[in-house]
Specification:
This is Malate synthase. Pfam families: MS_C, MS_N, MS_TIM-barrel. With about 550 residues, the chain is an alpha/beta fold. The chain has 2 domains: about 25-410, TIM Barrel (Alpha-Beta Barrel), CATH 3.20.20; about 420-540, Malate Synthase G, Chain: A, Domain 4 (Up-down Bundle). Helix content is about 45%, strand content about 15%. The protein has helices at about 20-25, 30-60, 70-75, 100-110, 125-140, 190-205, 225-240, 255-260, 265-270, 280-290, 310-325, 345-365, 380-390, 410-415, 420-440, 455-470, 485-505, 505-510, 515-525, 535-540, and strands at about 1-5, 10-15, 95-100, 115-120, 145-150, 155, 165-170, 175-180, 185, 215-220, 250-255, 275-280, 330-335, 370, 445-450, 450-455, 555. The strands form 5 sheets. Strands 3-4-7-10-11-12-13-14 form an 8-stranded parallel beta barrel, surrounded by 7 helices. Helix 5 (about 125-140) runs parallel beside helix 6 (about 190-205) and helix 10 (about 280-290) runs parallel beside helix 16. The N and C termini lie close together (about 5 Å).
Length: about 550
């Protein structure tokens, strides 16, 4: 009997279970690359996260985010990012989803121009999900990926023509508790980026990037100093791999309120490595509430009323387009979260019409592409963009949006109009609990009420409930004037748990993590202090370290 274990470099400990496939990803040299990134950048990352706390304190004391006078020269001067690589020129429709095997194949085969493979909000970051995701992406780029669906008795393989692969690592704030470097949990995004880059940069540049790449999406940034760290990470990776400076390219999601005032500065820090910005609109709404958690004069209406036609959302989209096109890069639109309604053609057509309308608004505003959560939406989205753009790969040169140069801080902060209702409170509670239950069970991308939900939706639900409870707001849309207090919330939680059990069935309800999810969600909504991220507390529930006894897999 011999024991098998991961061969690790000095200072690295792996606490996740041993698996032969995972061992291919967790090779000693790959782990050394990740550890080198961690050691070089950990003090910068800690400093950036401390600065986030300082900014939060300022906002909680009454300050508002705004344009930084110290960087006005970057906003005012004329400069452009490096030219867009030909392989990333046409991004009219991008599909997003987690890195599970069947999803990777279906998304690459979907007919979209890009597949954003997600280690972030659409993934529950269990050891199994993260490591099998790395295996799946490696197999996809090696061209060997296949999946046998035993239930349908169907084998899935890649088509001749596939979408371009972008990868989204986790945000700076999330740890990777299954890998310790010098006794500390590794930074999640450096694990995601480092392992993927190490194994795939060569295959990607050969098969997908036409000499460029790999390509990435970068989430949750709040300040250009965070973009600067990514730029340094990219430069180090390029040096280690011996590839040209500017090979790696990334699109940054503008999905926090502070970042909207620093789009020029973020692009400037990533000048050689940028391929644009994206409107991460659900997280942006979450960030609006979180930034103004101590501002009772800035309460949002029901979240279903906070769409892109609200003045502060339209201003954000318009300024993003103007900024990107002025700097020579893509301005990507937001997510269409609808999923096909197979058993109701009328409802399905109505949902598709909403998608078309949303995408028409985006392309006419000047966006160069958009996101879809489901392959069934891609033809409708593609048709809208092609009708307006015809054969052009993008609108960088043709739609400059000079009119958006006049957008002010007031425009970007304008309080949205609408009302608050008990149904809004109930929907937040129902969706938040169900999403969290799925996340605890290993699924980060969850179909709920004909929409594909990821962590951003649960975050909006949580922070809005928290804010309404904290200020005991009046539900002014019901005509009753009821106030949101602990008593009402407890009743809503109890009744919505009953409704969830009825909808999913008692057996699934008992087996699922609904009760645990309910405890976490309710605690987060009623805590005196608002937690920065729901997933930080919930992460502790899915970390699974190897047992001390029989730590290693035993081979005969």
């Amino acid at each position: 009997m011999t024991e098998s274990y991961y061969d690790v470099p000095d200072g690295v400990d792996i606490l996740g279970r041993y698996d032969e496939e995972f061992a291919i990803i967790l090779k000693k040299d790959a782990l050394k690359f990740v550890a080198d990134l961690q050691r070089e950048f950990r003090s910068d990352i800690k400093y950036a996260l401390e600065k986030r706390k300082e900014a939060k304190k300022r906002y909680n004391e009454g300050a508002l985010p705004g344009f930084d006078p110290a960087t006005s020269h970057i906003r005012e001067e004329e400069w452009v990012c490096a030219p867009v690589p030909p392989a990333a020129a046409d991004r009219k429709v991008e599909i997003t989803g987690p890195v599970d095997r069947k999803m990777v194949i279906n998304a690459l085969n979907s007919g979209a121009k890009v597949f954003m493979a997600d280690f972030e909000d659409a993934l529950s970051p269990s050891w199994e999900n993260l490591m099998s995701g790395q295996v799946n992406l490696k197999d996809a780029l090696d061209g060997t990926i296949s999946f046998h669906d035993k239930v349908r008795n169907k084998v899935y393989k890649l088509n001749e023509q596939t979408a371009k692969l972008f990868v989204r690592p986790r945000g700076w704030h999330l740890p990777e508790a299954h890998i310790l470097i010098d006794g500390e949990p590794a930074t999640g995004c450096l694990v995601d980026f480092g392992l993927y880059f190490y194994h795939n940069y060569s295959a990607f540049r050969r098969t997908q990037g036409a000499g460029f790449g790999p390509f990435f999406y970068l989430p949750k940034m709040e300040h250009p100093r965070e973009a600067k760290i990514w730029n340094s990470v990219f430069e180090k990776a390029e040096n280690v791999a011996g590839i040209e400076r500017g090979s790696i390219r990334a699109t940054v999601l503008i999905e926090t309120l502070p970042a909207v005032f620093q789009m020029n500065e973020i692009l400037y820090e990533l000048k050689d490595h940028s391929v644009g910005l994206n409107c991460g609109r659900w997280d942006y709404i979450f960030s609006y509430v979180k930034t103004f958690q101590a501002h009772p004069d800035r309460l949002l209406p029901d979240r279903v009323q906070v769409g892109m036609t609200q003045h502060f959302m339209k201003s954000y989209s318009d300024l993003l387009i103007r900024t990107c096109h002025r700097r020579g890069v893509h301005a990507m639109g937001g997510m269409a979260a609808q999923i096909p309604i197979k058993d109701d053609p009328v409802a399905n057509e109505a949902a598709l019409e909403l998608v078309r309308k949303d995408k028409l608004r985006e392309v006419k505003a000047g966006h160069d592409g958009t996101w879809a959560a489901h392959p069934g939406l891609i033809p409708a989205c593609m048709e809208v963009f092609n009708n307006i753009m015809s054969n052009a790969p993008h609108q960088i040169e043709t739609v400059k949006r000079e009119d958006a140069a006049n957008i002010t801080e007031e425009d970007l902060l304008q309080i949205p109009v609408g009302v608050r209702t008990e149904e809004g409170l109930r929907l937040n509670t129902r969706v938040g609990i169900q999403y969290l239950a799925a996340w605890l069970s290993g699924s980060g991308c969850v179909p709920l009420y004909n929409l594909m939900e990821d962590a951003a939706t649960a975050e909006i639900s949580r922070v809005q409930n928290w804010q309404w409870l904290k200020y005991e707001v009046e539900l002014n849309g019901d005509g009753v004037g009821e106030k949101v207090n602990k008593e009402l919330f407890d009743r809503v939680v109890e009744e919505e748990m009953g409704r969830i059990e009825k909808e999913v069935g008692t057996e699934k309800f008992e087996k699922g993590n609904y009760k645990e999810a309910c405890k976490i969600f309710a605690r987060q909504c009623t805590s005196p202090e608002l937690d920065d991220f729901l997933t930080l507390e919930a992460y502790d529930y899915i970390v699974l370290h190897r047992p001390k006894e029989g730590t290693f897999k035993t081979l005969n």
